[in-house]
Amino acid sequence: MEQGELVVRKSYGGDVLFRVEAVRTHHALLKGTDYRLLADAPIPDLSVVRDPKKEKATQLVRVKVNDSLSRIRQQHEQMAVQVKADIRHAMPQSQPFFEVPGKVLHLDGDGNYLRKSMQLYQTMNVPAHGVHAHESQMADLLYRLLPQVKPDIVVITGHDGVLKTRLEADLFSLSSYKNSQSFVNAVGVAREYEKSRDGLVVIAGACQSHFEALLQAGSNFASSPGRILIHALDPVYIAIKASYTSIRDTINLADVIHGTISGIDGVGGIETLGRYRIGLPKPKITAAESSLQSIS
Question: InterPro entries recorded for this chain (predicted)?
Answer without folding.
Answer: Peptidase_U57
